[in-house]
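Narrative of activities, Objective 1.

The group set out to show that a structural description can be obtained from nothing but a protein's sequence at a throughput compatible with the screening campaign. Below is one input-output pair from the validation batch, recorded exactly as produced.
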Amino acid sequence: MGHREALLDGARRCLLERGYARTTARDLVAASGTNLASIGYHFGSKEALLNGAMQQCFDEYIAQITRIVFADPSATPVQRVRASWVALVSTFEQYRPLMVAFVEALAQAERVPELRAQLAECYERLRGTVADMVRSSVDDLSDATARQVASFLIAVFDGLQVQWLLDPERAPTPDALMAALEVALPAALATEEVGGS
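Output recorded for this entry:
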């Protein structure tokens, strides 16, 4: 394993064990068996290394969710949305340290432009991945519409994640989210039709 891969592997362990805010460059060196110069050479900064490791974790997470969502090829788009929410909630405990690290990174992004740009790029990649999933579920959907749907689904997930991190017992369940969607969506569309006619 080269230094780059060792650094990413060590950064993943640090994210899970220490979190984003508490991981130092020396922690990364110790966990990876490399040296401080390697961080700068391969990633430019400690933050870029941690973001790279976080992105790897999220890519694996999304791949896992995708396998679950598409396990039943005959599922309808609504059934796939529900399956994705069930899959996400079922993995929250396993991925809690990663979710906490991500929230910590978001808090620091306000004052670190490089970090903000990297996290924004993570979201852009995620929108593309989820948009691909949406297009695989709904025929004849434009790229722009698929990205809008992806943004909506990501926003719901992010809100659910924060609620779960704060209070898992009272956070909404996938069934509660689906019930809310079944009530809110027709009501919103009916209002739109009345207002637009």
